[in-house]
Sequence to fold (316 residues):
Amino acid sequence: MILVYIETAEGKAKNVGLEMLTAAKIISDKAVAVLIGTGNDEAVKQAASYGADEVITVENAVYSTDAYCYIMKSLVEKYSPEAVFVGSTLDGKDFAPRLAAQLGTGCVTDVVNIKVEDGKAVYTCPSYNGNLLNDMTAEASPVVAIIRSGSFKKADPAEKEVNVIAESIAVPADEIRTKIAETVKEISETVNLEEADVIVSGGRGMGAPENFALVKELADLLGGVVGATRAPIESGWISRAHQIGQSGKIVAPKLYIACGISGATQHVSGMIGSDYIVAINKDEDAPIFDIANVGIVGNVLEVLPLMIEEIKKARA
Fold:
């Protein structure tokens, strides 16, 4: 059995939590979703729909590192799972390592793939700023695994009834060593790459920051979002919020259009799960064509305007 902590926002399950239900089935026949908080009725239905075999709910007013560690530790001690999966969100990365320390077990972070070899779960994690992928196993049990969003596809939703267990876990006052005095919402650019159905990405081949206007125009036409490789981000052409790859976001959209992207391993590993890949590059030997469903050999600055024009004509 795998305990899958599903984080919620405004009563709905975050995407990474539903993806982890798929990941859990790789190493176990039973995935048990854990929902902590209030007003999670919709999230319970989502968890059941996307593959949870059972759902555990725990009432708790607000997020607290100490409280969540105590609650999860109590659940681990009661249910004895093989592993605990936590999403690579701000809250997940906050409490998961501390939970592992309290359990005296291992913690694997930023997991992008899971497989089973010789009866053991093998977790693949990027290292050295995403330049290497390491396969890791954990001797201690249960391992706490922090899963990167976009690494696994959600199961096809299917309405079903599952057993819902309401656990009552009172957190002792002396367990809470920190108190949230104030919450400040940071105003910054946010890009929901992980849940996008269409992503249009630009690479070094776009040539200049102003040329990313073409990438954005195509993305807007298709109802998608803009992505980028590390090179244009490090050159200051576009913000880091758009980065896709080992050192950025892992994505799996229905359509991925790679514009002026050569196909370096660090980037490809972040979008290889896309359903359909269209690549535009002037180098016919670019590695990106090895994984593309459709390859267009040509100058991206000439091809993109033609694509945009034809889409506009088709919609007129």
